[in-house]
Amino acid sequence: MKKWMISPGILLSVLCISLVYINYKQHNYFATRCESTLTYHDYSADSDFTFSGNIILEFYGDRSGQYFLTGIIHNKGIDFQLSRAIDFSYTHSSGKKYSIDINEIRKLGTDTSPEPLVSKLLKVLGIAGNIALSIERKSDYITLWAPVIPVLTCAIVR
Amino acid sequence: MKYIIASLIIYDTESGIICGYADKGAAGQQHLTNTANRILSLLLTSPGEIIARDDLLEQVWIAHGQVASNSSLNQYVSILRKTLTKMTGISDTIISHPRVGFSFSAAINVRLDEAESVHDALHITESEISPDTQKTEEKNNPSSKRFLKKLEKYTLPVSGVLLIILLLITLSQYYRDDSNANSANMSVWFSVGKCQIKSDQQTRLISHEKIIPVMSGLIPDIIHVCEKTPSQVFFKAENSVFYGREGRVFVAFCRLGSEENKLMYCETFYAYNWKKK
Question: A-B interface: how many C-beta pairs under 8 angstroms?
Answer without folding.
Answer: 139
